[in-house]
């Protein structure tokens, strides 16, 4: 009788790559919101390749690891950045001036509202991951509050500033999260503390 062998394929944790993608795209995008740079033309490549593809890659590999939280988070924000990049292409007239002129920016506001609802749910879930991820999700909540209200014409200036500074903060904390994931995993001990789960919903 022939012996049956089980082969287990292990996948590396893709969180470091996903967080690095998030850090880069929010750093570049926040520079435009803060007025340090102008226009969105050169934000688009970073939105597509770092915001979208890097997080999509992390989503796919988290799925293979049966990580529901990582799959949902990275996948949803990857699709968000694909949508944002396409929106900027439309606004920049890549698909014709008629399409650019017909764009109603308030529709984007409702998309931001949908992502705010999504992020609030993910913020609750993030309490049982680590404190760095929890902080990132709270900052993303603030980003979507600012984006939603400013795009819908509510307290435009102050909400724009809220979005800008929270996006910059997302970038900085995501760089720390990326560093913690890569260095802790590479060295095999806690080189950078990420903070334990809160233990509120899961004991």
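Q: What amino acid sequence fits the structure above?
A:
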């Amino acid at each position: 009788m022939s012996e049956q062998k089980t082969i287990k394929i292990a996948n590396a944790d893709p969180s470091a790559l996903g967080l690095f993608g998030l850090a880069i795209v929010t750093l570049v995008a926040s520079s435009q919101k803060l007025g340090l740079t102008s226009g969105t033309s050169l934000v688009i490549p970073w939105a597509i390749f770092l915001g979208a593809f890097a997080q999509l890659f992390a989503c796919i590999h988290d799925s293979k690891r049966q990580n529901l939280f990582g799959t949902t988070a990275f996948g949803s924000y990857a699709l968000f950045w694909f949508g944002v990049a396409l929106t900027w292409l439309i606004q920049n007239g890549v698909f014709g001036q008629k399409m650019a002129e017909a764009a109603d920016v308030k529709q984007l506001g409702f998309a931001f509202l949908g992502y705010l609802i999504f992020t609030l749910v993910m913020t609750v879930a993030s309490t049982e991951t680590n404190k760095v991820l929890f902080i990132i999700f709270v900052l993303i909540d603030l980003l979507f509050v600012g984006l939603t209200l400013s795009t819908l014409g509510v307290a435009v200036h102050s909400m724009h500033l809220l979005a800008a500074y929270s996006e910059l903060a997302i970038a900085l904390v995501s760089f720390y999260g990326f560093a913690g994931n890569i260095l802790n995993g590479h060295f095999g001990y806690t080189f950078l503390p990420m903070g334990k789960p809160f233990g509120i919903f899961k004991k």
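Q: And what stands out in the fold?
A: The mean pLDDT is 95.
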